[in-house]
Design a protein that fits this description.
Largest sheet: 3 strands, antiparallel
Radius of gyration: 12 Å
Number of domains: 1
Number of strands: 3
Number of helices: 2
CATH class: Alpha Beta
Helix content: 25-40%
Distance between the termini: 30 Å
Order of helices and strands: HEEEH
Strand order of the largest sheet: 1-2-3
CATH architecture: 2-Layer Sandwich
Strand content: 15-25%
Length: 67
Amino acid sequence: MEPSLFSKIIEGEIPASFISKNELWVAFLDINPRTEGHTLVVPVEQKQRLRDLSKESQHSLMEGVAI
């Protein structure tokens, strides 16, 4: 699978303003925000669908969204 835009951001190939992160997810500001503070929370592991993530990654991602 070719690296996604998000994978390139996570790897530092594309600059981003990171808000928070852990080993399973990262949160960064959207470059075209709909509202002030529009933040994207994405898993570090690249998958086609959320359901393809491990249960641990799914739970951790949702905890990141809740922060």
